[in-house]
Design a protein that fits this description.
Strand order of the largest sheet: 2-3-1-4-5-11-6
Shape: elongated
Structural class: alpha+beta
Largest sheet: 7 strands, mixed
Radius of gyration: 33 Å
Number of strands: 37
Length: 696
């Protein structure tokens, strides 16, 4: 049964659970909460009933797709678990969770070992210097090998990894663990749903391993403190409590990474895991002050204490039908109680906190107050969104927000029916409020609504969510390319407009010379009119007419760039000439002359930096060459290589997905618009035909 009492800062642990997709994160959290009694039933990921699988999309795909918070209580301490997706398409959720956690548990499959996602989330923790622990999961599965996984961890990921438990058996024979602190075996009872175990002596089959790792653990702990080292060298016993304290300090400093093991699906190892988390993970106040920016832009140091001025960061916003908008937040300093008035300095808005609650999967349990360091949820804030700071009105501050990854995959969307189209813009904006890595907007130049995300699955799930929540169904298509046109030769000609409708007519006449300019130099107008053949007041109208006509080129209707227009001759009528007449004449002149000036198509060129492990450089280079890329150079990055290249935008559709496939998910790229260049002749006809089809 979920609790409704508040916990003080020293009795809170904020732990993000990270790992490759399918490594057991959600199952571990579900089992710990069930064993602790804060969850009423033991769920199952495959059935979509796990505690932190809260949406139909997650149930339908059988995987976690969003950050979800749940809690367990052990020895009077609340552990706030932040469950995260393991697939890189949802990396923004992991980034948000890491920002508000004080420690991380990285799950690694006992059979699969260190995978691509393991490396990715490890780097995420490195960037924030987050204390880490490792849980080797699924010890009951076929091919489980704790020793092999431990060697992988120590060799390639965490040299400071050291086991605090040793498994007894593996795969179908996994039946317990040995606690290296106490030297006692924990033997699990078959069918015990809440992880109950009995204590026993260490079995002979693991006695040598236990002795080896106990010695290394004790030596590691002893080196963290001179007094402990002296006592250890003198053969004096060090109590379990002293061992815990020494290891907790080393974990907080990032010097040691404890390794646990278990089989969460059977609840084997989850009780010990919770106990050790309480003992080893730092509480929110352990790391010192909280850095913020004051209203005047100055740095402000706040303490993670109840008597400090309040500061809280909203790290996730979600909305569900019949519930409304929910804001998940962490209290970094001060204490928040029901009825508290807070200030959103970034949006210059006040917020009143009502129905304060703590999250438990998709459930909420109301509480009277939250202490510094705790995580809560509140409904229906008026102005506050993800990454906003709420603080005391008398001391408004802004906390560092979540650094979300930039979306790199684009797709064009349109409503299936008129009603869908009418609601599309509002629905897309609401989805962006919930997930800042999903960005969408209408591009007037290509006349498409473009949605951007972190992967194809990410986009597909957002469209599923949009249909379920907001009743908007969309179709997708490739984004159009924003081509340009230019001229490649000098030409000249006349633009003449004469209209007589009985009364005053319209007359404008100009001669225009067009010249190409270098790429990126843009448009320039030159007047060389002499002798008043066109009155000075009408010359700017010729300029406006040329610019207006140049928005729709003569090759495929794209804007014309990088040319000079010189108006050098013409004539006028003292009565019938006007600004509008010369504007029309200028547009006629442009179209007449542009067709003679060898018009050409330009396409956007993107500068890409592709970062991949060294073993994939050849395959990635081959793929880039197949896209007619111009490789500018390569830079070694210690086991990885950054490849710099220039590629036509048309060649980069779905490139992120292809790159992930080539590099097994270990490569990524960044893009920067470079400019425009001529389209190869063999592709011009196809582009012209596509443009004509759209216009037709």
């Amino acid at each position: 049964m979920a609790v409704a009492r508040s916990f003080r800062t020293e009795n809170i642990r904020n732990v993000v659970v990270l790992g490759h997709g399918g490594s057991g994160k959600t199952t571990l959290i579900d089992a710990v909460c069930f064993a602790a009694g804060t969850s009423r039933r033991k769920g199952n990921v495959n059935a979509g009933t796990a505690l932190t699988m809260t949406t139909p999309e997650e149930t339908g795909h059988g995987m976690s797709m969003q950050l979800t918070v749940a809690h367990a209580i052990d020895a009077g301490t609340k552990i706030n678990f932040l469950d995260t997706p393991g697939y890189m398409d949802f990396a923004g959720e992991a980034a948000a969770a890491v920002r508000v956690a004080d420690a991380a548990v990285v799950t690694v499959g006992a059979a699969s070992g260190v995978e691509v996602g393991t490396e990715m989330v490890w780097q995420l923790c490195e960037e924030r210097a987050l204390p880490r622990m490792i849980f080797v999961s699924m010890m009951d599965k076929m091919h489980a090998n704790f020793g092999k996984v431990l060697a992988e961890l120590r060799d390639g990921l965490a040299p400071g990894a050291i086991p605090v438990q040793i498994p007894i058996g593996a795969a179908a024979g996994f039946r317990g663990v040995v606690d290296l602190f106490t030297g006692r075996a924990h033997v699990y009872k078959g069918g015990a749903m809440a992880g109950e175990y009995g204590e026993a002596d260490v079995p002979d089959e693991v006695a040598d391993d236990v002795e080896t790792w106990q010695t290394e653990l004790m030596e590691t702990l002893a080196t963290t403190d001179e007094e402990l080292l002296d006592r250890y060298l003198e053969g004096e016993a060090i109590s379990v409590g002293e061992q815990f304290a020494a290891l907790a300090g080393a974990v907080a400093e990032g010097e040691v990474v404890p390794v646990f093991c278990g089989a969460a699906e059977q609840s084997f190892g989850v009780r010990e895991f919770a106990e050790l988390l309480v003992a080893l993970a730092p509480h929110p106040g352990r790391g010192g002050g909280v850095e913020a920016i004051g209203d005047d832009g100055s740095a402000v140091d706040l303490r993670a204490a109840d008597d400090e001025s309040v500061s809280a960061l909203v790290f996730k916003t979600s909305a569900e039908p019949h519930v409304g908008e929910l804001s998940l937040f962490r209290v970094f300093s001060g204490m928040v109680a029901n009825g508290t008035e807070l200030r959103n300095a970034g949006r210059e808005a006040g917020e009143r906190i009502n129905h304060l609650a703590i999250p438990q999967g998709k459930e909420r349990v109301e509480v009277e107050a939250l202490h510094a360091g705790d995580i809560g949820v509140v409904a229906k804030l008026k102005s506050t969104r993800t990454n906003d700071t709420l603080s005391a009105p008398a001391n408004p501050v802004t906390l560092e927000g979540v650094t979300f990854p930039q979306p790199d995959i684009s797709i064009a969307v349109r409503g299936v029916a008129r009603a869908d189209e009418d609601k599309l813009g509002e629905a897309l904006a609401k989805l962006n409020d919930e997930d800042p890595t999903f960005v969408a907007g209408f591009n007037p130049e290509i006349r498409q609504t473009i949605a951007r995300g972190l992967g194809e699955l990410h986009l597909d799930v957002q469209f599923e969510r949009m249909k379920r929540k907001y009743g908007v169904t969309v179709e997708t298509e490739p984004p159009r390319i924003a081509y340009r046109e230019t001229i490649t030769a000098e030409a000249e000609g006349q633009g003449r407009f004469k209209k007589q409708t009985g009364g005053r007519g319209q007359f404008g006449d100009c001669w225009v010379r067009l010249r190409p300019r270098d790429r990126g130099e843009g448009y320039e107008f030159v007047s060389s009119i002499k002798g008043g053949v066109i009155p000075t007041k009408y010359v700017p109208s010729v300029d406006r007419g040329i610019q207006e006509a140049a928005t729709k080129g003569v090759v495929a209707g794209y804007p014309v760039v990088d040319f000079e227009a010189e108006c050098y001759d013409g004539s006028y009528h003292s009565v019938d000439s006007s600004d509008i007449a010369f504007k029309v004449a200028g547009s006629y002149a442009f179209r007449n002359v542009a067709e003679k000036a060898k018009p050409a198509l330009l396409e956007p060129i993107i500068e890409v930096t592709v970062t991949v492990p060294d073993e994939y450089v050849g395959d990635v280079m081959g793929d880039l060459n197949g896209r007619s890329a111009r490789v500018l150079g390569m830079e070694p990055l210690g086991g990885k290589t950054a490849i710099m290249a220039q590629v036509a935008e048309a060649e980069l559709y779905k490139y992120a997905s292809v790159l992930r496939s080539i590099t097994q998910g270990r490569g990524f790229h960044r893009r920067k618009m470079l400019g425009y260049d001529l389209v190869p002749p063999m592709r011009v006809e196809k582009i012209v035909a596509e443009a004509a089809e759209r216009e037709g």
